[in-house]
Every structure is written in C-alpha cells, then in structure tokens.
Amino acid sequence: MERNSNRTVVVTGFGPFGEHTTNASWVAVQELQKLGLGEEVDLYVYEIPVEYEKVLDLIPSLWKRHNPQLFIHVGVSGMATTVTLEKCGHNQGYVGLDNRCHCPDNHCCVQGGPDCLESVIDMDVVCNKITDPQLDVIISVSQDAGRYLCDFTYYTSLHLSRGKSAFIHVPPLGKPYTAEQLGRALQTIIGVMLGVLEHPNAKMNCQMAL
To answer: In which element (H, E) is residue 116 found?
Structure first.
C-alpha cells in the first residue's frame, strides 16, 4: 500500500470560560477545518477545556497520537484587536483560576524548566510574509501570551515538541472580525508557518537544549 506522505498539523482551540461563553478561538478553528490546509496536509482539530490538568493530559496524548510536523494552539484574548502571533511561552506565574477554580500548586508548567521557551518558527518572518490581498485581517506579533491557559498550553507544547509549536491569539468574535475572517487568517498563517518551518535557517532556541 502506498505510504501517506502528507504532513500532519494539529490545531486546538479552547472551550468556554468566563465571559467568553462562545470562545472565538474554537469557532475560528472550526472555520479553518472547513477550509482545510490543502491536499498535502492532514489537519486534525481539537477543543481543549480551560483547565490546567486537562492541558497536561491532552497535549502529550495528542502529540503521541499524531506526531505532527506542527502543533498550533489558538486562544482568545479579550484585549486583542488583531490576530496575534505569540513568540514564546512562559513557565511561571500561573495564579489565575481555571474553570474548576484550580491553578497549579507551584504556579508553573514544568518544574525546573527554563523561564521562557521560544518557537522554532520566527514569528516576525511569518508576519512579514503574509501578503495575501484577500486577507482583510491585521496580523501582529507578541512576546507575552498572558500567564493563563493560553500561555500554559503554549509552554507545555513547546517543551514537548522542542519548539515545533505555535500560538495564535484571536480577538472576540465581531471585535472586529467575523468567524470566516478568522478562519481564513488561520489558514493563511499556518500555510506560511509550514513554509518557514521547512526553511533550513529555521532556528531552535538555545534554551531548548537545556
């Protein structure tokens, strides 16, 4: 039987929490699923509950199940007005309570891990490469994913994947973008990320070797 040579990409969004009774991140990921990433990419999408313990269980299990070339996490930020590419995840400072009124006992992701881990994907390069004239969405870059479930998920994933993860923050629906606009933005961004990941100059953060 002919072997499947497709690349595998896993994309997650988050479930409801707080005022976000409909989480724009999961809606955007579902829109991406409708659009797909082309015939050469096998796309798998998952909704993650806003719970620290669920993240620690689900992220490793999804990595083991799919062994993706790239793991993309999408979250909502009530303060965001652009689609934001996060450069790094942080290990410490997790005091915000999740949907089960829980936070990590030691307020960190990985005991003894580096304070910060960066994606091997240069987010500035990705942002600069997005020139799709049909993409009526502003893309920006950030170094602070917020020290809540988004940041916690990103660091956990970066640690497991040795940097082959990315995190994208989206604004709430209608503020200012529609679900369709967010889905198209994700499709374009991830396509560019895959191209950057394959580039021989893709860099690995020196902290990954620790």
So the answer is: strand 116-118
